[in-house]
Amino acid sequence: MTELLAGRRVLVVEDEMMVLINIEDALADFGCTLVAVAATVDQALALIDTQNFDVAVIDVNLDGQTSYPIADALAKRGVPFVFSTGYSDPGLGGDHSDRPVLQKPYRDSQLAEILIRLLRKQAEPALV
User: Fold this and answer.
1) Which of 38, 42, 108, 125 is disulfide-compatible with 26, CB 3.0–4.6 A?
2) pLDDT tens-digit profile of 7-43?
3) Domains in the chain, ordered, with CATH?
């Protein structure tokens, strides 16, 4: 199932160290070749400006600050992403209300499933 993730470049934006370690381990198990991590909006934006990513996982709340600027930057570059959150209602609004959300805690298989779905959706030809 995770063959589609092999060799992929993934941005992970997460401010909780244990959650981040679990995500990094899972992505390594999936065969991702580049896993760049950031814990703040500024760190993530700097990575987006200097590297190319196939897909991203971004925490909704980064130490009290929303990750919407990161979502905007990824969307502008056409990088698919999923929000992750521990809140029962992530409160996504505006341009991000239709984005997928992984509810913490989640299993590695759920992470793989959503990332694969995002990559497949991106690969689909646009309907005219």
Assistant:
1) 108
2) 999 999 999 999 999 999 999 999 999 999 999 999 9
3) 2-90+98-116 (3.40.50.2300)
